[in-house]
Design brief:
elongated, 85 residues, mainly alpha
């Protein structure tokens, strides 16, 4: 099943934000910034990635976890959630 384009756009925006944060973290490391500052930014980037993943799961649950007959496949749903842990 395909994920609706509007949902993909939202996830891509979140991931682009995380990508920018990761670039900032690399610069911080190159500049020798304080460990606590770097870790704070790493937590923010991780949160942005998690939010993108949860958004994809939430919006795509009906599309991503169906079997060929259009029925919800609980094993696929469980696998999708476990991929985030």
């Amino acid at each position: 099943m395909e994920i609706p384009e509007t949902d993909i756009d939202s996830v891509k925006k979140r991931l682009a934000r995380a990508q920018g944060q990761l670039g900032g973290i690399i610069r911080m490391l190159d500049e020798g910034r304080q460990c606590t500052d770097v870790l704070t930014q790493m937590a923010a980037a991780q949160s942005a990635i998690n939010r993108a993943a949860f958004s994809l799961i939430a919006s795509g649950i009906a599309n991503c976890t169906q079997d060929e007959a259009g029925e919800q496949d609980l094993a696929k749903l469980e696998k999708a959630f476990l991929a985030l842990s």
